[in-house]
Amino acid sequence: MGPIIISGLVSGSLYALVAAGLSLVWGALGVFNFAHGALLMMGAYIAWTVASSSALGAGIAAGVVASVVFMAIAGVVLYFLLVRPWIGKPGAELSVIMTTIAGGIFIENLFLTIYGGRLKVLDQIVVGTIHVAGTAIQYQDLLAILLAPALLGGLALLLTHNKTGLAVRAVAQNPDAARLVGISVERIYIVTFAVSAVLAGVSGVMLGGLFNLIPSMGADPLLRAFIVVVFGGLGSLTGTIVGAYVVGMIEAFSSFYIGIYWTPVVLFVVLIVILTVRPTGLMGQAT
Amino acid sequence: MTRPSLQILALAAVIAAALVAPRVFAGGVAQNLAILSLLYAVVASNWDLTLGYSGIFNFAHVAFFGVAAYVSAIATIKLGVPVWWDLLLGVAVVAALSGLTAILALRQRGIYVALVTFALTQLCVALVNSQKDITGGPVGLVGLPDLAIGGYAFGGHPEAYFYTAEALLILSTLFLRWLATSDFGLSLIALRDFEDYAVSRGVPAVRQRVLAIVASSVFTSLAGGVYAHYLIVAAPDVFSFSLTTLLLSMVLVGGAASIYGPVIAAVVLTVGSEQLAALGVVRYMIIAVLIVLTLRFLPGGVSSLWRSGWALRWRGGADAPSMTYVETGAEAEKAP
Questions:
Q1: pLDDT for res B5
Q2: Mean per-residue pLDDT over chain B, rounded
Q3: What is the domain extent for residue B73?
Q4: Which end of chain A is more exposed for a tag (fewer CB within 10 A), N or C?
Q5: At CA B115, angle to CA B110 and CA B120, rounded to 5?
């Protein structure tokens, strides 16, 4: 039972990090970033490039810092190229789905061209194993379990207490009124995209330490994040986090008791049940 | 010349071209490309019915194509269903599946429809990969029997597949044109452009949209079945992200809500992407850039160019179909 719960918690933490970025952007800008999975992959590869002894070899700590800085910039670039030209135009929602799908394809194939399709191994941030109540836990797993609540808790605090955080919520609720009281909506959009991209990059670095790096590594987490946000309700940070842990647990338990091959079917059924019983998600508001 | 006689003339010209084309592209790479682009044209133009005319973010469309390919493969290889009947079985299964998907997805609005249909497609891939005994897993199911009429097997005569694909595209296009200009099609456009008003005038929103998705699945699944027979294999790449992107680029570059635009873009992009095959994955990067540039500078796609000219000359530009996606209620209600 212990290992299953740990596995569920680790998946849930990672899904929460990935889905929170999506949810944040949706809340503030009303668009959905389909390139989020590619950003995740990008974060992992940048960390690998700086950290790995077969590349720059500066160590994993430098890799993480480089990844965070790079992702913040990447998020802003992505915003200007793929989102900003369509904001406020009719059909922005659909257009941005298309542009970010195209952007994701571009980034993924760019990295495939640069790095090749072979698996890369990213050093774990912390190495070793700890025993808790008779269950062996890798430090990296433990880090994921602790990091997600810390980061997302910090994010929640920023959104409720920090001036910029409050401005993000103001823009999410009513961009016009926010502009009237002197908030630079454009700046908030940029900050939101940067934060979202950093969250994606951090999830990529964590995932890279647990599995391996391939250019298509973002696809699976993105799909899980979709299910999470449908489950939790887009735009609600609490709903997203709860949804992430529920999906992580469902996955862990069904892999163990029903078999790993049936896990997609179980998720499928869960998705259908949610849609039938509560189409707006756990905490989502009716649209 | 009046418009109906012009249309009959155009149809006659298309049929004449369809009879001649297989003799011009009589073998090898050109023939293969022609057959693939015709089948992709069917899929892309049917996607236009939901994406363009109805404004539904249905990303399960490629799954309809893929599932039909697998139904044909499983029916003929595992169950011994005679050829042609497996195509009909594919249509029936996919129609049921698309109806179910639509009913589930359309409980939600806007972006949620995209997420749910996207997730359903990905879960199809996961299912196909995991259920090896039925689907052949990642390798796919190889060895579909050839389509045949009497004793005339298509395998020895690839031009027969050419004619089949052409017939499929012509019938599909006639069907789509008829649907788009019918009362049903108009109600879809009305729902897309001004949902609240359409509903208040008695258009049942969910029913029309579910019907639109089911209607878009019919020729898509036929194309999927023929595709599997032609390639002799149903493999998981029918659900792949790169095929989705290619088809999406056909709809967008060709021009949403135009039917003919995606058909022409399908031919151009299939041939173009094959010419760039030597570049490897770089061609997907080129297609991605093409999509973004089209959305940025020519949101109506290439067909909006000729349509604006056409509308001016023939109809004074008065009743050219609307190309703007007016936001559906989701966005309108979000703003206070």
A1: 80
A2: 84
A3: 3-334
A4: N
A5: 130
